[in-house]
Amino acid sequence: MFELTNKVAIVTGGRRGMGKTHALALAGQGAKVVVTDIDANECAPVVEEIKSKGGQAACFKMDVSNKAEVEQVFDEVIKQFGRLDVLVNNAGIYFSKPALELTEEDWDKMIDINLKGQFLCAQKAAKEMAKNKWGRIINISSVASGQVGVGIAGGAHYTASKGGIIGMSETLAVEWAPLGINVNVIAPGAIDTPMIQAAQIPKEAMDAMIERVPLKRIGKPEEVSAMVVFLASEEASYVTGAIFYVDGGWLAV
Ligand SMILES: NC(=O)c1ccc[n+]([C@@H]2O[C@H](COP(=O)([O-])OP(=O)(O)OC[C@H]3O[C@@H](n4cnc5c(N)ncnc54)[C@H](O)[C@@H]3O)[C@@H](O)[C@H]2O)c1
User: Fold this and answer.
1) Secondary structure (3-state) at 219
2) DSSP E strands, the chain
3) What does the CA dihedral 15, 169, 115, 125 come to, rounded to 10 degrees?
4) Keyword Nucleotidyltransferase on this protein (predicted)?
5) Which of 81, 169, 176, 234 is deepest in the core (most CB within 10 A)?
6) For 115-139, how does the pLDDT look when each residue is reduced to its tens digit (9 = 90+)?
7) Which numbered atom of ligand 1 lies nearest the CA of 93?
8) Distance CA 182, CA 185 (A)
9) Tell me, which fold does domain 8-252 have in CATH?
10) How far is the centre of ligand 1, averaged over its atoms, from the C-alpha of 119 (Å)?
11) pLDDT tens-place string over residues 22-42
């Protein structure tokens, strides 16, 4: 099950954190993986790791908020690999700022990368996937997306971007079902990556959050990648427009 041989996948924000484990997991199932991020040099070790395990991979610099760059990289991937089957819209940023202090620039930066970036990549990917009447688009949101009880102080701009992903994805799933493209959302809880480390959440706040999570720990990036692999696979053929919480049960409380 979950065989991805001959499938071509693009992972955005793939140099580290969850993007890296998504790339490795997809390659582990046989996919050819294109690792993209704001710095191609930093993607190179991920590509080397995939190749050292016998897989095929390439890396490209691609800022997801830059439409011209997205179009150029996708065109180059299709030229090199001949097709595109899977897009993992993983790239994202987080920075905390009280809502009263948020500037227009802060707001635009967050929305441009986290929300517009996913749309630009999805739209370009869908045009290619439609040619083969087969595609899987996996958009990474968050439990901090307007779901009950997970508003985060200092994150109005982030939660707006992550909530937008859910509405957008449901619509894309409806529009693109006739094209053979399944669009789904993964909403992770707190996952141990450079992003959460950089957020410098005070220990008491982290302990309180973990206490609230039924599994009593934060998640590992690989635990989210397992869901990515399933949603990328043929076995997810009847799954579209859905949201998958990989959150240790956080939202169930
Ligand atoms: N870590 C968590 O607890 C958590 C929880 C819920 C959702 N998420 C989401 O998961 C995704 C992955 O996050 P992570 O925790 O691995 O963080 P991370 O910071 O380790 O990885 C994010 C990656 O996105 C890249 N990136 C940033 N701006 C970009 C741009 N403009 N174009 C292309 N790439 C860009 C970064 O360089 C980085 O490699 C993000 O969308 C994040 O919002 C994370």
Assistant:
1) strand
2) 8-11, 32-37, 57-61, 86-89, 135-140, 181-188, 243-246
3) 60
4) no
5) 169
6) 999 999 999 999 999 999 999 999 9
7) 27
8) 10
9) Rossmann fold (3.40.50)
10) 16
11) 999 999 999 999 999 999 999
